[in-house]
Amino acid sequence: DPPKVNGDFYELSDTLTEEDRAVQLKVRNFMETEIKPIANEYWNKAHFPMHIIPLMAKLDICGLTYKGYGCAGRSSLLEGFIAMEMARIDSSISTFFGVHSGLAMGSIYLCGSEEQKQYWLPLMQRMEIIGAFGLTEPEVGSAAAGGLTTTCRKDGDNWVLNGQKKWIGNATFSDITIIWARNPEDNQVKGFIVRKDNPGFKAEKMEDKMALRTVQNAVITLTDCKVSEEDRLQNANSFKDTANVLRMTRAGVAWQAVGCGRGAYELALKYTLERKQFGRPIASFQLVQDLLVTMLGDLTAMQTMVYRLSQLQDKGDLQDEHASLAKVFCTLRMRSIVDHARELFGGNGILLEYDIARFVADAEAIYSYEGTKEINSLIVGRAITGESAFI
Ligand code: FAD
Q1: Is residue 181 helix, strand or coil?
Q2: Which residue range or ranges hold the Acyl-CoA oxidase/dehydrogenase middle domain (predicted)?
């Protein structure tokens, strides 16, 4: 029998409607023809391929699940498949896209006024404007819910922001960044649409990352950064509203982990079929097959889990703990899959030209961002025990 290199072993794509399947294949084709040939080069240079933005815009997939404002109102399931297709080839590109379409557009979609949505979302859907999302700070990562030190202060018709943000993806070139800041007056978190030409806004590229090198992460410094009341997200009144955005995007990160794992598994399987030792393809050895099957089992469990997760999301039943469990489980299994995949490449597994080294490195970032394993575990732990381990 011919080998089965397709990592969708239980044929979940077959359950998509013809229309959705066409979108999935359009994204796959884009990733394979436009991204795969340049992925290692840009990763190595730590540059972002700006020329792909208009090409991506043509795919017409930004804000895919949002209703109105130029967005298609399609299912979360389809959006999940798209995140997977992107990460299957390059997790940097899926991260760039997730920040723009999920975190930045999602903040406006969920927390913006009608006017804000009507103005910004169509521009962002067409990728004429690129967004970033600034929550994390140099001293505040996991504890963002209660501990933001960036402040906002009302000053007449404006707000004044002061503080620093760290790790903010896309922010070196984004047109707008959603900045989350605490108002010391009521101690609540508010969100602001901060434009890149604001004189109080400075974004500096973070150098020397060892993962997702194509993604441009920035340290942002806000110095008496004046933002008009018009650009305050009108329906972001507390961290609960921020958390609503994160619940949605965390589900997307779980799908990204599936994509990263799937790409690594498929690369490894192909390699073991081509690479010969002792006169035979290494795929013919029992120990190699055992590793491949372990990887496939993990991958299939991850795929079926996120599939159901998206069904819950599409029914409107997605809870924080559902998204957190999928994020924890899928990123843990992803880490194990890429590790086994690298092992199967032997020495070539640490050479960028064989792709797998990039997957191993990138998996580390996916594992830690959008809530670490510990934080997402504690969210699930709180839900199942009724006891909060957070202070
Ligand atoms: P810390 O919070 O300092 O955690 C360090 C360790 O302590 C972790 O293992 C953590 O789990 C553990 N820990 C902390 N508290 C507890 C506890 N109560 N119990 C048990 N263990 C605990 N942020 C943005 O706002 N926008 C972005 O676009 C963005 N992009 C990112 C891209 C990349 C590549 C990376 C790496 C990060 C990005 N982040 C972004 C930030 C990311 O969300 C944070 O890195 C993440 O939330 C963890 O915060 P931290 O790095 O400060 O780690």
Answers
A1: strand
A2: 132-225
What tokens appear for 336 in the block? 């194990």
* Closest residue by Cα to residue 222 from 174, 178, 187: 178
- In the predicted model, what is the mean pLDDT of residues 301-328? 97
CA 370 – ligand 1 centroid, Å: 7
Query: What pLDDT shows up at residue 87?
Result: 98
119, 131 in Cβ contact below 8 A? Answer: no
Does residue 89 contact residue 263 with C-beta atoms inside 8 Å? Answer: yes
ipTM above 0.90, yes or no: yes
Residue among 90, 210, 212, 368 to mutate when testing ligand 1 (max atoms within 8 A of CB): 368
Ligand 1 binding pocket mutation candidate from 369, 379, 388 (most atoms within 8 A of CB): 369
Residue 229 CA to ligand 1 centre (angstroms): 30
For 128-146, the pLDDT digits (tens) are 999 999 999 999 999 999 8
Note if the pTM is more than 0.95: yes
In 3D, which of 355, 277, 298, 272 has the Cα closest to residue 5?
272
Q: CB within 8 A of 106, min separation 6: which ones?
A: 63, 66, 245, 248, 249
Protein residue whose Cα sits closest to atom 4 of ligand 1: 142
Sign of the CA dihedral running 162, 191, 256, 387: positive
Enumerate residues lining ligand 1, CB below 6 A.
99, 133-136, 141-142, 167-169, 212, 217, 365, 368-372, 374-375
* Mean pLDDT value of segment 38-58: 98
Tokens of 388: 């909060």
Task: Give, to the nearest 10 degrees, the angle between helix 76-89 and helix 286-315.
Answer: 150
Joined together, the tokens standing for residue 300 give: 């299939």
- Position 2 confidence tier, pLDDT thresholds 50, 70, 90: confident
How many angstroms separate the CA atoms of 177 and 97, rounded? Answer: 14
Give the single-character DSSP code of 349.
G
Q: Which residues of 118-149 are buried (b: 16+ CB within 10 A; e: fewer)?
A: ebbbbbbbebebbbbbbbbbeebbeebbeebe
With tokens 């990160």, the residue in question is: 253
- 167 alpha carbon to ligand 1 midpoint, in Å? 9
- Ligand 1 atom 50, closest CA: 141
Q: What is the pLDDT of residue 245?
A: 95
